[in-house]
TrEMBL record:
Residues 29-123 form the YdhG-like domain. The lineage of its organism: Bacteria, Pseudomonadati, Myxococcota, Myxococcia, Myxococcales. This is DUF1801 domain-containing protein. InterPro entries: YdhG-like. It comes from Corallococcus interemptor.
Length: 145
């Protein structure tokens, strides 16, 4: 069994464009608005298309995903539990150890400044995680002196 690879960035961007167009309602507009905010918060963000149809925004690791459902748009931050959220944007997946999500329903107003700060904090967290040396997983071996 082979794992599905993410679509190349330019293909992913086109697929996200298509998803927004296909939705054709408030969910498409919400996804387009969030996408613009993500790019404004992090001009180096990379768009990906994973898991058979999920828009993903990354910068040295996944920042968040943008899933569309019948009644809402879900923005899932894979490391959301480690992010500061003073504005209380996270309103879903609050019980997990790592992920946090923002569910947007028709008519919801997203605090744009707080959302951009959340994206920027996710970038910083990814960069910090990347720069930390990995802890040794070997057990029972003495450390070198």
């Amino acid at each position: 069994m082979t794992a599905k690879k993410a679509a190349p960035a330019q293909d992913a961007s086109a697929l996200i464009d298509q998803r927004i167009e296909d939705l054709g309602d408030w969910r498409g507009k919400a996804l387009a608005k969030v996408r613009a905010l993500i790019h404004a918060a992090d001009p180096q963000v990379v768009e990906e298309w994973k898991w058979m149809g999920t828009p993903v925004w990354s910068h040295d690791g996944i920042l968040c995903t943008g899933e569309s459902y019948k009644s809402h748009v879900k923005l899932t931050f894979l490391k959301g539990a480690a992010l500061p959220d003073p504005a209380g944007l996270f309103n879903s997946s609050l019980e997990g150890n790592a992920r946090r999500a923002i569910d947007l329903h028709e008519g919801d107003k997203l605090n744009e400044a707080a959302f951009k700060k959340l994206i920027q904090a996710a970038v910083v967290l990814n960069l910090e995680s990347k720069s930390k040396p990995k802890a040794s997983r070997a057990k029972g071996k003495p450390s070198p002196k």
